[in-house]
Design goal:
The structure is a single chain. By secondary structure, the chain is an alpha/beta fold. The protein has 2 domains: 241 residues, Aldehyde Dehydrogenase, Chain A, domain 1 (3-Layer(aba) Sandwich); 194 residues, Aldehyde Dehydrogenase, Chain A, domain 2. It has a 7-stranded mixed β-sheet, with helices on both faces. The protein has a 6-stranded mixed β-sheet with strand order 10-9-8-11-12-24, with helices on both faces. Helix 7 links the parallel strand 8 and strand 9. Helix 6 packs parallel to helix 7 and helix 11 crosses helix 12.
Amino acid sequence: MDKLNENQNTGIDLSKLFPEESEIPNEYNFTETIEQKEYLINGKIESWDTSFQDVYSPVCIKSNEGLNPKRLGKYPLLTEKESLEALDAAVKCYDHGRGVWPTMTVKDRITCMELFVSRIKVKRSEVVKILMWEIGKNLEDSEKEFDRTIEYINDTIEEVKKLDRESSRFQIHQGIIAQIRRGPLGVVLCMGPFNYPLNETFCTLIPALIMGNTVIIKPPKKGVLLYRPLLAAFRDCFPNGVVNVVYGEGAITSGTLMKSGKIDVLAFIGSSAVANELKKLHPYPHRLRSVLGLESKNPAIILPDADLELTVKECLLGSLSFNGQRCTALKMIFVHSKIKDEFIKLFSAAVDQIKYGMPWEKGILNTPLPDILKVQYMEELVNDAVSKGAKVINKNGAHLQSTFFFPTIVFPVNDSMRIYHEEQFGPVIPILEYDNIETPINYMVNSPYGQQASIFGTNSQTIAKLIDPLINQVCRININSQCQRSPDNYPFCGRKNSAEGTLSVFDALRVFSIRTLVAAKKNELNEKILSSIIHDRQSNFLRTDYIF
């Protein structure tokens, strides 16, 4: 990368990017490390005293010795033994669907969830600070992640109430009386990603819980410390064994859990390679339900009549929000040759003008990457593209300092380059020129990924002709806007290697449950039995009362 910098002879000076300890504002400084020994199994916060994993921040601290990542603390490296103890607790609590939690009324489960929300709300500032320091997410986005998670829980509670109301009536068809509800599936293993370690994990955890499943949480390797402030709330708000939290190497913890064959649902957000390995470990794959959010290579297709001011703005946010470390990020930009020069000129200027710095600074878009390895990977992608004919277009591109990598535009890109195929999950932006619209269409058809795409243009007929062939390649097309997950009421899913199952406030409740029913032939005896059960409230399942 130094060679690239020399060739440009321009760009930014990053020597003053990282602060000295004394320059960090007191309200945002990480003054006390988190020496975590705790983990949660069967309603008890246990203490660990054996092996630990040190946690370092992407934020480096400047001193006379140079730049060094700030140490944030440590977390336990549990073994197979503790993993199986957590599994036994979850299995026992579920008890083949006969346990307290799966047979509890929906209203009572909602009460537990509402208590949980009230307990974790007071942890907002603590969790936000950990998010900033551990994964380098800026202050505004860290606050947004926490607040959006709380909103998601509340929306889920309201959707459960609605679902319960809709399920409270009886149906009669062909002389059969039935009440149809949704029941839990069993034990769920929840594994979230480092880029949204709270929100993405909770988007599977919360619906799984509220539908009556028991859960084992395996936090991501990065973004792990924020779960410590939540352990007591999990313990106090749910019956013993409903929520269990284990820490450690995935091969030891998650691998052991999957090999047991006792995991009923795998809720995993990460790479398809890891998902494949986890699923292979399960001895009864036909019984395993998988809810997967995986990688993507979402393209932007910029038509010749696109509003360039709007397009540049959306492509900037779409490709660089949280350093491009989002599955929904724009990771390939196709621009028509007629407007290629103007778009690249405007887009390059916009990228070079972004605000970058430390997570606590106001208005910052780009921050340090999780570790040196991520920076090295960005270098590899850019060097590979340059070696095969691309150029670094923006003058600040290809500049780095320790864990910080300035967003870099590479053009022209072709299919011989790694960046054409690989999900960069970082601030490298490939641009490909096209004349024939079949070029971006064929890219999407042949891509192993199929999450979303963005189309930028002003002609409705042209856009309509693109929507029809592309909607069966991806699950969401965004018109004149970046790819994104929100709002959570809309389905979030993908085709091919990008996902399995659908998540949204509505869909997630159905993903983590199964339709079940009680049925009886319509005759005097059965009507009397059903009436008695309903009138005397003898069953938590068979009932007609409403939750308002």
